[in-house]
Structures are given as structure tokens and as C-alpha cells.
Amino acid sequence: MQLFDTHTHLDAPQFDEDREEVIARALASGVSKMINIGFNRETIPTTMQLAEQYDYIYAAVGWHPQDAVSMKDGDLEWIASLCAHPKVVAIGEIGLDYYWDTSPKDVQHDVFRKQIGLARELNMPISIHNRDAHEDVVRILREEKANEVGGVMHSFSGSWETAKMCLDLGFHLSFGGPITFKNARVPKEVLAQTPLDRLLIETDSPYLTPHPFRGKRNESAHVRLVAEAAAEIKGLELQELAEITYANALERFGIV
Fold this sequence. Notes:
The chain has about 260 residues and is of the alpha/beta class. Helix content is about 40%, strand content about 20%.
């Protein structure tokens, strides 16, 4: 069985003491590919290092909305140059975050639009961070013609109405630890209705740890728990769910 963790942060300081062991546990759990996310000036270089060090780790590079105020002239060109690297498979995570008050909304919007424009210019898929900003995220994706490149709605948390709009724009929906939570009614209902050919799984480790490890550090090995929950919701065997989401990820990110 092959699993694909489409969104992880293995370069996070939470893994500084045992990163190699964490990666080994992921492989032992059936995770054969991972995409690490570089989302600001500090994490883009460490993400690239991981992608170059491990054959099965790929990279996405972009500017996170929480860090939008720190983006300077030249950073967009930096991201563009890295997209020529064979292990970089997406621009992200990019988007809007109205939960953390770290960057003004107008700055977030500007940085988001610029990166969608870059993705269209380079024909790269995008990985979308959306926290408490569903209406504006969908509006900007439409206005900036993000449907021309598509991508992934990372750790999707919106309603089925929002999901349908994202699907209409050509995006995949990715689900993580929250679908294992007993009280997570909406994510489970949305996953149940998501077309199988648009479904992806992820961990967002070290965050969003699935049950029964909720409250502890998450890691890529736990994407198996996400796959098990998704399989149950979809009425599939784990092997079948794994094969579908693995193939979807290969296709979405253009990995041969």
C-alpha cells in the first residue's frame, strides 16, 4: 500500500530532535511520498534542503498569508526561480487567514493575487490556505482565473457550498486529522460528497493531529489514520482509498 502525504512541515522545529526517525516511521507506515511546504523566508530554504536530500520528498514554495507583511521586492522572483527545480511541484501554501491578525487583509489579498498570477505564468498548481476567509478566497480565485492552473484546497474546512465552488474551479479537496474527530460533522459530510477523483489526504504535521493522538505532535506516519477515516466515510477498503488518493496526488502535482 502506498500513501501520499500531500502537505507536511517536516522542517518544523518540532522535529529537530528526531527528524530522521519521523521520516522512517512515515515510510514504515506506507507513506511513500510527501510534499513539504516552504511558506516564508525561513522555511523555503529548509524545504528545498529536504526535497534535495530525500527522493520521496517534494516541495511546494510560496508565501503564507500570515507572513504577507514580510514579503519584499524580489521574493516573488525568488519563488519563480525555485519553481524551475524538478522537485518543486506547487506554489503554496498561499491564500488568506482571517483568524490570526498578523497581516492586514489588503496586504494578504495583494500577495495572494500576485502568487496566483505567478502560478498562471509558470503553469504551476497552487496549494491554498484558507482560514475563516471562504468568501474572499473563492472570489479572488475566480477573479485571478486560478481555474487555469487549479490546485489543492489544503486542509479543507468549509461547507459543501464552498466545496462545490472550489470543485467548479478545478481544485482538489484535501483532508487531514479533523475528519477523525468525533465532533467534526461538517468535514466528514463534505468528504462524503467529494468526488473520488478530486480527493487528497494530508497531515499538516506537526499540526492537526488525528485521533487518538490529538493534542500531541502530528507526523506524516499519521496520514494512515486519515486514510482509514476517509475510507470508512467513503465506504471503501483502505487499500482502495490509498490507491485513489495516491494516483490523484501524482496527477495533480505532475509527478511521474
